[in-house]
Specification:
The protein has three helices and two strands; from the N terminus they run ααββα. It starts with 17 loop residues before the first helix and ends in an 8-residue tail after the last helix.
Length: about 90
């Protein structure tokens, strides 16, 4: 790539792995299991396409990337073919 870091900058909203939250709860951190924290994630976002996992009316505006580059589609297909689980949430 030719150019500065502005060519690759992006902003991602990632909640983390559900298993990590559940593990923290198992270690004695009550209230940190995924089922405990997920409602707060939903309340905190204003998702362009609300649903079971995405809320509406929160302070954080969240949406899917407007354009999906063909290379990203190819990479996702290759990863899936290697038996890795890929999810777009």
């Amino acid at each position: 790539m030719l150019g500065g870091s502005s060519s690759i900058n992006g902003l991602l909203y990632v909640r983390g792995q559900t298993q990590d939250y559940d593990r923290w709860a198992q270690l004695g951190n009550r209230g940190w299991a995924w089922d405990d924290v997920e409602p707060y994630f939903r309340k905190s976002v204003d998702h362009a396409e609300p649903g079971a996992l995405h809320g509406r009316g929160g302070a954080l505006a969240v949406s899917a990337a407007p354009d999906r580059h063909p290379s990203a589609t190819h990479l996702s297909q290759r990863v899936s073919s290697l038996a890795f689980r890929a999810a777009m949430i």
